[in-house]
Specification:
Ig-like_fold; immunity; single chain; T cell receptor beta variable 3-1; mainly beta; Immunoglobulin-like; four-stranded antiparallel beta sheet; Ig-like_dom_sf; adaptive immunity; 164 residues
Length: 164
Amino acid sequence: MGPRLLCWVALCLLGAGPLDTAVFQTPKYLISQVGNKKTIKCEQKLGYDAMYWYKQDSKKSLKILFCYNNKELILNETVPSRFSPESPDKAHLNLHVRSLERDDSAVYLCASSLDTALQSHCLPVHKPLVPARKLWGQRAHLLHKSVLCSPTPCVGWVEFYPSG
């Protein structure tokens, strides 16, 4: 039997922002074999209603995974069923990953904001033309939609590193 190739996935938790950050992710460092189950915990001490998990892959494209508002899932962007978020209260949003795969290697970011774009009162919005129709040559008004509308969103991140 030939040598076995062991795939390891390492999680490296890095803090972002000032030392008095209000969003925390644990554990700080975690190393696991592919196939194992792991949990990343996120806690925010801001009292905000909205919490998010993002994934940034090696190509640096940032994608939203989950969005919660007051413990209720309001967005799940076709995330594999191996990823399951848990919100025991509005201050916590844990990310459980079962059966880790090599493709899970990425930076995982937890964030919190005052509101979500779905019910935000802090976003500048242009009202559409009335009546709501566009004739050829008329100007169109665009509605700007942002996921994080807090003036200073707090972000932390977790990184998966393959080794071997």
